[in-house]
Write a structure and sequence with these properties.
CATH superfamily of the largest domain in chain A: Nucleotide-binding domain of ferredoxin-NADP reductase (FNR) module
Strand order of the largest sheet of chain C: 2-1-3-4-8
Largest sheet of chain A: 7 strands, mixed
Number of strands of chain A: 15
Oligomer: heterotrimer
Helix content of chain C: 25-40%
Number of strands of chain C: 8
Largest sheet of chain C: 5 strands, mixed
Number of helices of chain C: 10
Order of helices and strands of chain A: EEHEEEHEHEHEHEEHEHEEEEH
Strand content of chain C: 5-15%
Number of domains of chain C: 2
Number of domains of chain A: 3
Chains: A alpha/beta, B alpha+beta, C alpha/beta
Strand content of chain A: 25-35%
Structural class of chain C: alpha/beta
Amino acid sequence: MKNPYHPIPMIVKKASVETTDRMLRTLQLSFLNEEDAKAFRFIPGQFCELSIFGKGEAPLGIASSPTENGSLKFTINKAGVVTTALHHIEEGTEVGMRGPLGNGYPIDIFQGKNVLVIGGGFAFTTLRSLIAFFLHPENRNKVKDITVIYGARMPGLLLYKEELKEWEKRSDIKLVVTVDWGDKDWKGKVGLVPNVLEELAPSSENTYAVICGPPIMIKFTFPKLMALQFPDERIYTSLERRMKCGIGKCGRCNIGHIYVCNDGPVFNYAQLKKLPKDY
Amino acid sequence: MNLKLDKKDLKPFLQSLIDEADLFAPVQLAEGVLVFKKIDRPDEVDLSSSNTQKPAKEVFSPQSETMFRYEKAGKQHQVTSTEEVERKRVILGVRPCDIQAVSLLDEVFLGKEYTDSYYLNNRNATTMIGMACGHPLSTCFCSSTGGGPFLRKGSDLFFIDLGESFLVELLTEKGMTFQKSNFFKEANTEEISLAKAIEEKALKKTDTSVPVEGIEKRLDLMVESSFWDRVHEKCIGCRVCTYLCPTCHCFDIMDEALTHGGQRVRNWDSCLSSLYSQETSGHNPRPTNRERTRQRIMHKFNYFPKNFGRIACVGCGRCILYCPVQFDIRQAINWTSAKRLKLQRGGRSTNP
Amino acid sequence: MIQKKIREKAKELLEKKMVDLIIGFGEWTLPLRTTPIFVRNPKEVDHLIWNSFCENNLSTYLHKFSHFKVGIVVKGCDARSITALSLEKRFKPDQLYLIGVPCQRMVDRRRVKKAVKGEILRASEQGDQIIVEGEDFKTALKREDFLYSSCQVCTHRTPTLANVLVGDPVEEIPMTETHPDIKEFEKKSPEERWKYFEKESSRCILCFACREACPMCYCEECFVDSSNPKWIEKSLSPSDNEFYHIVRAYHQTGRCSGCGACERACPMEIRLTYLTQKLNQNVKELFNFETGIDAETLPPLSTYETEDRQEFIK
């Protein structure tokens, strides 16, 4: 019987700094053992607990899509003891990984519908996984229109800049990248995400919205979604909470009777409204 | 067939257990302070008190438990797992409330998608020798929570203290393995009647009046109530109630590093601690004692029942006895009844 | 009658809106105990009681009510804690109204429990006696024989610097050269002393009741919670338990009023006051300072003056 607390060994294949303020680092991890790689199946929106032995674990959303075989991508914000350690490790180092954990985005429910993705700052990681999943030839016709609004405070703080450029060129996705403040090289849109959403005014008919971002962005974007007639059951978000076990045992991440690590982290607003305001 | 163990045979019996297995039983650490510990010598065992301070959950999920050890090997690590339980175990002198609590913890650690290997191994290896409560305390309200001082469910063997001897009931397959034990003699009719009399007397003593019936529904209406403003006031936010509670099970996972390796350990934690849900960003969804007290009570009487169909309280009364400021959970439960009446009548709440 | 005067004063303060609430002691569910209560309605002042079981140091609650004007019932030791807190600028001036009660010394409920066989179901005070009753016993115990050790050696039972005293000041005993517990302890060799301390702290379950009951422990992040630097691990270990107790005692040096709330709060009945009392004695000897006696002198270990003695620096 597998011990759910034992991490699987992973090797840091590639490490790169993602943002100009050097606070976000992307790690590409590959499995040390072949059988672990074969057994690992996940859907966008799930997360893993990455271990640095001696420092601890941190829950991180999987940024790579299940269609991108071989390795897992994580983008890590330098915030505490473990994430700082993840910023300092070199390529070739072993890290531990437990996963996939959580419920993931409801890709089955999205089938045959339009998808509106709204992301802000470094919350974009699992959204990348979702977008890349649906853009894959095998999955593209599972959903109809894909609209993405992604904003960061400044151009240097955008994640996955090269990829965004590729996606902007595609005709099967409408991608609007925006920044709060531009710089002398920025040729793209300047504007806050809620305002860009209002301007774009995507139709809510047959559309599911997925929104991930800092609380302040969600606070101002949510009323715009309401104004566009998105019902609560069709607005999805991914919650964050301090976690430890990641498997619904240690009790730390509960909101009411649900555990964010196990019953979530993805919820729709109708579900969230039923929970006590404990977040 | 009813068996008994004469008290003069208790020490040799305990020794026979120690020879075969790891024995856990109540030990007095200081006058009046008892915990369950691994026994090396029969004279360490103290079965005289009504209940231990630290609950029996410690035997199945220790306060500090190593999850694995690791050693650096270049850029990689050698990991040694620690979940195996090598020797059989016996726990003796567990009260029915603590046994009920362990079955409740089974739901958390063994149920749903993931199985907690450490807990499972401890549980499978352990024979439970329960001890009836002939003299429940006035703070015991196990009978209000679906339990009772003579509840046998969950015990493999069940002892009833008759004064000169223990009446022994073999209740499960594991218990039946003791049938041929040299230490157990046949009990006579007087001894069996005495046990019945003690049981009847004990059942009358425990408190059946604590209104836990329907508390889940009452609390559904009270999440944002000003009730919590008053309830939390005297709580000082220590962890006594949580650590001494046989059903509380929240834990923390930490790495402890040494130069060439270390271990990952899990420790009991408490939702009443101010940093419990503090996120690295600095945001704390439960910033004051009010939210934390609400979380603890709601978890026990509303969230846990929603997930597992029963309240997470076995009425052992330890939180009442040992709280430094005498927070009495029975009163908090009573107030939910009064509160509901006030809400129904449209009244405003005053000081409970 | 102290209890009557407490209620009268509380009523007056609430009716005149001089305070938003009164923190005092009330009757509760278990014998030999009282519980902290928070009275806001002048009609409810009759919940306030006074007896020999009012053992908590209520000043530990003041941080929860920092936005309110608070009236608080204080014994001598509690008032000293509040003076010490005021010097550490924990309150605004005039935020508190101290209802000072000259203390008759509190009864050690644990020793009373151990003096009888069987559960105590009712307890009452009659003159200098404590009457305890169980299912099949009723015993009268001499109050003076069952006082808390910290109360036995208390040198300031009358609250200094209270806004009002609701009883006559009591005769104080001078701080003894060595207090009986310390005297016993000082007779031991260093190895014996360590063994005693080791045995006591080995029972510790890191519940932090001692820390939360103590009014002087108000740090938002306690040293035990620090992860960088990580001073102690979170798991139970003899050395980390000992480290916690030693450091916490040292953090009280020059700040501890000797109220004993830490020891009374401990569910594992760990002796703690012998550490703080020894430190208090040392502070008196070295700096001629006693915590919370006057509102002007700053605690010696929290301040630096160029004239500070330094003959111990070699």
